[in-house]
Design a protein that fits this description.
This protein is of the alpha/beta class and about 525 residues long. It has three domains: about 1-175, 3-Layer(aba) Sandwich (Rossmann fold), CATH 3.40.50; about 190-320, 3-Layer(aba) Sandwich (Rossmann fold), CATH 3.40.50; about 345-520, Rossmann fold. It has a seven-stranded mixed sheet, sandwiched between helices. A six-stranded parallel sheet has the order 3-2-4-5-7-6, with helices on both faces. The N and C termini lie far apart (about 60 Å). This is Acetolactate synthase large subunit. Belongs to the TPP enzyme family. InterPro entries: THDP-binding, Thiamin_PyroP_enz_TPP-bd_dom, TPP-bd_CS, TPP_enz, TPP_enzyme_TPP-bd.
């Protein structure tokens, strides 16, 4: 804690964030945040990134945390602005991403007049936040800001929402507070390690189900050694926060999205040892299909919960099983399938990705139905990270690309986008251009919410009529992705064949800034 003279509350908060190693702010400010904007301008050290929609703000903060393990701050305008960002805060919460939201409010004395933008900000924030506080005075904002950072940095990452009334921002303040360092991640007990090792030695059909921080290259290698030693299976959820994969890394099977397929996989998997994962459930409820996907004769055994030190837990389990010297199982071999020809198809796009994903790339997957088999086909591609939508609320991909690219400026980011999903946060193209971020975007243009056509059948609707089909289509008029992208400063082209896609993808990967390819499928 340090004392400074001639500060206002907003300045003390910015100084506190910087002292606490929060040095990026994704912003979409309004009138009530002008003193905070002035403080960001006055005080050096904070990178400020303007997003044209609040869902872009919160999604970018999610992507930044996933790649750094370090929270960013956001700046949002009152309850409506926060409300616009809630969908991607939901996704971030499911991904266990730490974020410090700064939400402006009316001056405290102005609230009683119920001006048009007055609303219950704490009530709006609550469902998507782990911690919410309205800072009552300019003298308390620094301590509250430090507490927000401490909350966001807890393991697993948390969403902290700090509400900053305008008079709290412009009033006098005299201190800067540094957030306490985060505590060490919890360790799995020796008793749990011995018990789990016993289960894996029991001869019963067993599998590891990994999630969260257990999907790093190091953790997967330890899991692969355990597989070699015990003969157990190894699985991950369909959607994952960040998976390190590719040639030379341990390959894991995803539990399928489709319920019937998931049931078959889990029937063969036997009992599950949960390592940063939860018991598998269906994404939605369907008539006459189960919500809980585990077979009646199988059990789930808790080993390490989200937030635990996964590498230490797997290291201890491997040691208990005398598996540390065992070669890891399921290591993916390099594989580049032949480049396809002809009109673009799901299988052909997957083959092109398998050939052309550059080493150390960050792949953000919101390809929905077009990309269902992308991960299987790219298992032998050059080593890379793969990020999924943990929360399922669409429109996360382009904002996540903003945050991931800012977090990793030396790595190529590839965003795989369904056209319907991309339209939710299309404004992020402008931010990608303004910040000149090294992101190549593939938009799969099929003119429909194709996943929902399948879901009509899954929930038992037969022979849908033209009004139902019309509600699931995004044509009439057709979207022109090249015009939309170039209109926001992003170079773009449209392709209809595999040959053209391979050429365009090569050009996009060589391009130092954002580049969009509309892929007609």
């Amino acid at each position: 804690m340090t004392n400074k003279e001639k500060m206002n509350g907003a300045e003390s908060l910015v100084e506190t964030l910087l002292a606490s190693d929060v040095d990026i702010c994704f912003t979409n400010p309004g009138t009530s945040e002008m003193h905070f904007v002035a403080a960001l301008d006055k005080i050096p050290g904070m990178r400020c990134v303007l997003c044209l929609f609040e869902g872009g703000v919160t999604g970018a903060a999610d992507g930044y945390y996933r790649m750094t393990g370090k929270p960013a701050s956001t700046l949002l305008h009152l309850a409506p602005g926060l409300g616009n960002g809630l969908a991607n805060l939901h996704n971030a919460k499911k991904a266990h991403s730490g974020i410090v939201n700064i939400v402006g409010d009316h001056a405290t004395y102005h609230l009683k007049y119920d001006a048009p933008l007055t609303a219950d900000i704490e009530g709006v924030a609550g469902p998507m936040s782990h911690w919410v506080k309205t800072s009552p005075t300019s003298e308390t904002i620094a301590a509250d800001g430090a507490l927000a950072v401490e909350t966001a940095r807890k393991s697993p990452g948390q969403i902290a929402t700090l509400i900053l009334p305008a008079d709290t921002a412009w009033g006098d303040a005299h201190e800067v507070v540094t957030a306490k360092a985060p505590a060490d991640k919890p360790r799995v007990s020796a008793e749990t390690i011995k018990k789990t090792a016993g289960l894996l030695r029991s001869g019963k059909t067993m599998s590891l189900l990994l999630g969260g921080d257990a999907l790093t290259e190091e953790c997967l290698e330890l899991a692969g050694r355990i597989v070699t030693k015990t003969g157990c299976g190894i699985y991950i959820d369909w959607f994952n926060t960040r998976l390190q994969r590719g040639a030379g890394r341990v390959q894991v099977e995803r539990i399928p999205y489709v319920v019937d397929n998931a049931l078959k996989v889990l029937e063969a998997a036997g009992d599950l040892v949960l390592i940063g994962a939860k018991a598998p459930v269906a994404f939605f409820a369907y008539p006459e299909k189960p919500s809980a996907l585990m077979p009646e004769n199988s059990l789930c055994h808790d080993f390490a919960v989200v937030g635990d030190d996964m590498e230490a837990a797997l290291q201890a389990l491997a040691a208990e099983l005398d598996a540390l010297a065992s070669p890891p199982a399921n290591v993916a071999e390099p594989y580049t399938p032949p480049l396809p020809t002809g009109p673009c198809s799901k299988e052909g796009i997957a083959a092109i990705l398998a050939n052309m994903i550059p080493e150390n790339a960050v792949v953000i997957d919101e390809s929905v139905t077009t990309g269902r088999e992308f991960m299987r086909a790219t298992a032998g591609a050059k080593p890379h990270d793969w990020l999924n939508n943990r929360g399922g609320s669409i429109g996360f991909g382009l904002p996540l690309a903003v945050g991931a690219s800012i977090a990793c400026p030396d790595r190529k980011v590839i965003a795989l986008e369904g056209d319907g999903s991309a339209m939710y946060t299309i404004q992020s193209l402008w931010t990608l251009a303004r910040e000149n971020l090294d992101v190549t975007i593939l938009v799969f243009a099929n003119g429909t919410y194709n996943i929902l056509r399948g879901e009509l059948t899954n929930v038992g609707v037969q022979n849908p009529g033209p009004r139902a089909i019309d509600m699931l289509s995004i044509n009439r008029p057709d979207l022109d992705w090249v015009k939309m992208a170039t209109g926001m400063g992003v170079d773009a082209q449209k392709v209809t064949t595999h040959e053209a896609l391979a050429q365009a993808f090569k050009a996009g990967l060589a391009h130092p800034g954002p580049y969009l390819i509309e892929v007609v499928v």
